[in-house]
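User: Hey, my collaborator sent me this sequence without any context and asked if I could get a structure. I don't really work with proteins. Can you help?
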Amino acid sequence: MKSLLLVAHGSRLVSSNDAIKQLTSKLRSRLNTSGFDGVEYAFLELTEPSIPDGISSLVKEGATEVVILPYFLAPGTHVVDDVPELIAQAEKDYPNVQFRVMTHLGAVDGIIDLILSTADATA
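Assistant: No problem. I've predicted the 3D structure and written it out in structure-token form, which is a compact way to encode the shape of the chain:
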């Protein structure tokens, strides 16, 4: 079973965290055409669920492969160090689960087209 974990920073602002929950809900509604069987969100800090909790939830649902999307625009310390360290621990905790970390959102192919088309639509 292939699952997606959307990893965001986390915020003291409830509305910011709620935006991640809403995005996850939208992703969940499109799972039947995505190639994924499950999707969860997790936060690096400041709120719950934590990344280990998000992974645990997916594994309990039967995930045998977890794809992690670092929902960050730039490759800062969290992307370069923190997320990989947490995933390395998950690999030890769940040796029968395959983990793949995607590039951070800001480096995803198509981001330039998305920015330009969105900017053009609002201009």
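In plain terms: The longest helix spans residues 77-93. You can pass these tokens on to your collaborator as they are.
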